[in-house]
Write a sequence for this structure.
């Protein structure tokens, strides 16, 4: 928390009017205000409002632990100080859910949060999609033969925009290996849409929407790290034609 600034207590917050909650999945960096903290960790929001969030973390923090969060969006990073008000119990598979209230937010970051939330509506759900250009190899389930090579176009917790040298039919199940700088990540899923170019040039890759069907718990945290890096290293100004992303 910022010293010298008044923070709302849990009791005061509970007595205030409720703010609409939005089902928004955003990756974030966080640092716990605890001696011996190992530095920045990664997490995901489960839902979000102007005054707090339900977040998914890899470890359990008891109330009233103070956390500093840096939410990663496709527009900007939003920094907030938060206080844990409840913590769930570990469950497999998955992380640990926590309820947090925001105790301090810089005015410009609060405005960025206010601009973000109404775009989905209280009943809506969205996940941040960020440009990410990495090589992939694909293995079609139940099919022998060489691996297909391609590249990613963007990424979220739910899926990938991928470019492949040939058309793969919708609903085809396959396993993608994402070759990151740190390690190779295997991700099972299926093709949910295909968008060939209207007038393709010879050898032009074909855009596909790929949705994850099963991920180890640690994989979403690695994805969060990739998404955070994508925010810090934005794509060049010349971008390919916008295509639909997997939903």
């Amino acid at each position: 928390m910022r010293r010298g600034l008044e923070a709302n207590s849990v009791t005061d917050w509970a007595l205030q009017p409720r703010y609409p909650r939005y089902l928004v999945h955003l990756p974030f960096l966080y640092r716990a205000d605890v001696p011996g903290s190992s530095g920045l960790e990664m997490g995901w929001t489960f839902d979000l409002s102007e005054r707090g969030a339900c977040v998914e973390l890899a470890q359990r923090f008891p109330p009233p632990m103070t956390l500093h969060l840096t939410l990663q969006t496709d527009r900007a990073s939003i920094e907030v100080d938060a206080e844990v008000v409840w913590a769930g119990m570990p469950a497999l598979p998955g992380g640990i859910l926590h309820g947090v209230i925001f105790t301090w937010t810089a005015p410009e970051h609060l405005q960025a949060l206010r601009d973000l939330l109404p775009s989905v509506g209280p009943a809506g759900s969205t996940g941040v999609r960020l440009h990410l250009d990495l090589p992939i190899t694909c293995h079609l389930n139940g099919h022998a033969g060489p691996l297909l090579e391609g590249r990613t176009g963007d990424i979220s917790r739910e899926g990938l925009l991928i470019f492949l040298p040939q058309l793969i039919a919708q609903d085809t199940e396959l396993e993608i290996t994402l070759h990151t700088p740190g390690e190779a990540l295997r991700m099972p899923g299926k093709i949910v849409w295909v968008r060939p170019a209207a007038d393709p040039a010879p050898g032009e890759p074909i855009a596909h929407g790929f949705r994850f069907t099963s991920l180890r718990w640690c994989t979403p945290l690695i994805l969060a790290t990739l998404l955070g890096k994508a925010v810090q290293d934005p794509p060049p100004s010349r971008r390919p034609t916008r295509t639909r992303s997997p939903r």
